[in-house]
Specification:
Blueprint: H1 4-12, E1 20-25, H2 32-42, E2 47-53, H3 55-62, H4 71-79, E3 86-90, H5 96-102, E4 106-110, H6 121-126, E5 130-134, H7 142-151
Parallel strand pairs: 1-2, 1-4, 2-3, 4-5
């Protein structure tokens, strides 16, 4: 896990070779849909950088009861996935500032985002990069997992 400035330095030192792919999200309760999307994102290049919403950012977007899982735990689990090369936290509601520092060649989001609405599109396309909205694996969502736990009173 890195800070954005640390990744920026690694990139500027040419320590990283190959096509950089960037995606982001809360990844509050990791499920098969997440793992599938991350694996397909990695296929778009050589290095996958994951911008991970911090706890502060998740609360701002999803409400005071979220995240369910802390940022340190989420980052630890995500960093263990074979598809992910770097995990970088961000506190803002969007990853725009992080994308401007990472300067990815490919920007990927799940199919619930249209390409026109993907934050950072202008930065990536302005550098000649590609922005993709990949189809989601049907039937998987964090909301449905939380709903199942709540409705079944699982503790």
């Amino acid at each position: 896990m890195l800070l954005a400035d640390e990744f920026e330095k690694i990139r500027s030192d040419a320590t990283i070779n190959g096509k950089i792919v960037f995606t982001n999200g809360c990844f509050d309760i990791l499920h098969a849909g997440h793992v599938d999307l991350l694996a397909r994102a990695k296929e778009q290049g050589d290095i996958l950088v994951l911008g991970l919403n911090s706890d502060k950012s998740v609360r701002s977007i999803k409400g005071e009861k979220r995240p369910v899982v802390s940022q340190k735990q989420r980052a630890f689990v995500l960093a263990g996935l074979a598809s992910i090369d770097y995990v970088i936290f961000f506190d803002e509601d969007t990853p725009l500032e992080l994308i401007s520092k990472v300067q990815p060649d490919v920007l990927v989001k799940g199919g619930d985002w249209t390409v026109d609405n993907i934050v950072g599109r202008d930065i990536v396309e302005g550098r000649g990069g590609v922005v993709l909205s990949l189809p989601l694996l049907p039937g998987y969502s964090t909301t449905s997992v939380i709903r199942f736990i709540r409705d079944n009173e699982i503790e």
